[in-house]
Amino acid sequence: MKIPFSTALIIGSSRGIGRGIAVKLAREGVQKIAVHYRTRKKEAETTLSHLRQAGATGVLVQGDVSDATVAERIVKEAADKLGGCDIFILSVVSPLEEIYEHTLSTEVPLAKWQLAFDTQARGFFVCARTAAKYMTRGGRILALSYTPGGRTGGWQPWVGMGSAKAALDSMCRYFAVALGRHGITVNTISPGCCDETTVLGQTPQAVQ
Predict the structure, then answer these.
(1) 58, 55, 54, 53: which is closest to 14 by C-alpha?
(2) Nearest-CA neighbor of 49 among 69, 67, 33, 66?
(3) Which letter does DSSP use for residue 181 in this model?
(4) In the 8-state DSSP scheme, what is residue 29?
(5) How confident is the model at residue 99 (pLDDT cuts 50, 70, 90)?
(6) Of 92, 102, 115, whose CA–CA distance to 203 is shortest?
(7) Half-sphere exposure of residue 18, counting CA atoms within 13 Å on the CB side?
(8) What is the Cα–Cα distance from 153 to 34, expressed in whole angstroms?
């Protein structure tokens, strides 16, 4: 079944899961897709190439969503380039070395916890509500979550992402209530750990 929307912005789509989502949307009929990246322009251009092969038009938007002002600018720029924003997806993650500390949660540096929270929770808060303003005929808002991190606390070094994702899950429920009257659905999905670029290049001990 083809997706009945024509424009999409995926935050964090230069590679990994975000790239896969972008290509799938293109194959399912989304005609114009904004590929977001922070520093990996070459990988983002590769995503654009995949989109064209799938029959869609792609544009690039760059910026760091952990900065609220930049996050809002990214969405507005994408909507201007696309002529709207029917679908918004948050699939971004900071480089592992910037948010991960191999220690107990009580010993993780505040700066690493804050960066994870700003990128995930605040980034979603700013981007999603900005994107919703362009969804004049209904729309879809989706965020990638990490349910085990918000519930179990088992992966101690992941406290920044885990707590940010827990906030993200809650925020999506609030936004779903606020935006449902406009035909906009808001959901999270939790794909779990997968064979993609976040863990590639790490030692087996670090991944474990």
Answers:
(1) 58
(2) 33
(3) G
(4) T
(5) confident
(6) 102
(7) 29
(8) 34
Residues 6+ apart with CB under 8 A from 128: 88, 90, 141, 143, 171, 175, 186
Q: Which of 5-41 are b and which e, b meaning 16 or more Cβ less than 10 Å from the residue's Cβ?
A: bbbbbbbbbbbbbbbbbbbebbbeebebbbbbbbebe
In the Cβ-directed half-sphere of 177, how many Cα atoms lie within 13 Å?
A: 4
Residue 193 has pLDDT above 70, yes or no: no
The single-letter code of the amino acid at 83 is: G
- The CATH number of the domain covering residues in 7-207: 3.40.50.720
Q: Name the burial class of residue 1, with classes exposed (0-12), middle (13-18) and buried (19+) by CB atoms within 10 angstroms of its CB.
A: exposed
**CA of 7: how far to CAs of 22, 31, 145, 196, in Å?**
11, 6, 23, 26
**pTM attached to this predicted model:** 0.90
Single out the residue of 40, 54, 150 nearest to residue 16, CA to CA. 40
Contact status, residue 13 vs residue 21, Cβ threshold 8 Å: yes
Tokens encoding 74 = 């990214």
Cα distance between residue 170 and residue 156, in whole Å:
21
Sorted by where each begins, the domain ranges of the chain are 7-207
Instruction: Look up tokens 């899950």; give the residue.
Output: 169
Residue 35 has pLDDT above 60, yes or no: yes
* pLDDT score of 197: 53
Name the residue among 151, 181, 154 with its Cα closest to residue 163: 151
CB atoms within 10 A of CB 161: 26
